[in-house]
Amino acid sequence: MMTPEASALPRSPSGTRHPGDPRPRGRAWPLAAVAVAFVLAQLALAVPGTGLGWDEAVYVSQVGGNAPPAYFSAPRARGISYLVAPVAAFTASTGVIRLYLALLSGAALLGVLWLWRAVLPVRVLALAGTLFAGLWVTLFYGPRVMPNLWCAFGALAAVGCFLRAVAPPGRGRRDRRAAPGLGAAVAAVTLLRPADGLWLALPLLAAALLVPAWRRLAPPVATAAGLVLGAVPWVVEAYTSYGGLAARLHRAGEIQGTLGWYFSVDDHVRALAGRTLCRPCDVAWEHPWTVLWWCVLPLLVACGLAAAVRAGRGTAAVLATVTAASLAFPYLFTIGYAAPRFLLPAYALLALPAAEGVLAVTGAVRPARRRLVAGLLAAVFLAHLAVQYAVLDRAVGYSRSVRAQFTGVAAALRGLGVRPPCTVTGREYVPIGYYTGCSSRQPRGHDGSITEAGLAELARHRPLAVVVHAGKAPPAYAAGWPVTRLPSAPGWRAFDAYVSPGARPGTG
Fold this sequence. Notes:
By secondary structure, the chain is mainly alpha-helical. Helices cover 58% and strands 4% of the residues. It contains 19 helices and 5 strands. Helix 18 (429-436) links the parallel strand 1 and strand 2 (439-440).
């Protein structure tokens, strides 16, 4: 074990540099290469031909896009809308939005890995970045208007800044930017997803208070301040739009399925086959081979923790693992459904000890066999990437069908005279409204922002389309309206549209 005097030196006897030394270790080009590869993979595999899904349409419509703002339900936060606003305010092009986010996510990956250069060797960071960026869920959500990947980047930044803020100074000056960076990272995560911000802050606050060597004023103050500042917009909106904080929290819990004690690990296992949302997750366990990496991950993390402790980097590996466990806990044990994106912050942090584990396995082999073991590991990793690509292709294929379905439906509705200013209600009302350029309203469910009488009154002044499953009866107020069978893409159930008599087909 290192003595306090030894820990204050910029390098330990084993040759590793202490996190307190702000000087970077090694050349940074491997990190840049990982980030560039991440962007190129997104542009080639995850962007072409895809459309905005339901949640994306909600977030984009708040700041521009193709339609008036969709109803913003209680659990949502506006951070991702702010992130995409610089582009969505000027164009409704899904392709441009995807390109912007792909480039930005690549820059964010490079930025957080760069920040960790004062804590971990470049070889560990490059491998960790490769492991994380190679997951299908990371590639899929890189160019999408969803907050989870950005929470992952924020969590990585927060833990890295925390370690730099609490480390003893080396020969150089203390990194004075670490504490403000910590606060900014926690605030960003909280602005994106308030619950994630809370579960990120808890282990950092506990570490700052319970570890004697880390008891400094700045880190816990920065963490708490970031949590509060990031939550302010959500709390203010609770009072202005949802009847108060308690009412918003209650409604958010209802929409998320009433929070409680659940064992959702098996749901997340099923979702790894490419289901972007598994709710309810009572489907068969398809393609068990898609879960192999999930089973190997804890073993790699355990090996990495042991190796990091031996190398004098144990604090970084342990804190990353504990924080990952905190971020994963609510999704595995308090919510009764699963979505792979929920665990992205945990995967990002676990990639660090996992990378330590891979390098430890290679380094523990006799030099004569090291090339053979490295070759076997490379082959296993290529097989892993092939599995990830297969799952990504399935998820992207569904996203392309979303675009085909809703662009076809929107074109048909416009041909029926449903043009702005207009309103869509009924089945898939949010994406159909977005693609058609209409507002989307619903008298029940998560929305409930209007009554059926209100919709009937609205139809007197603007085109209103009521979308139902083919053959199903419409609400009473639309029973006498003209009905049209809408086009449907392969794999989609057909819809009928009841259009208010005030709409004029073929007019602009």
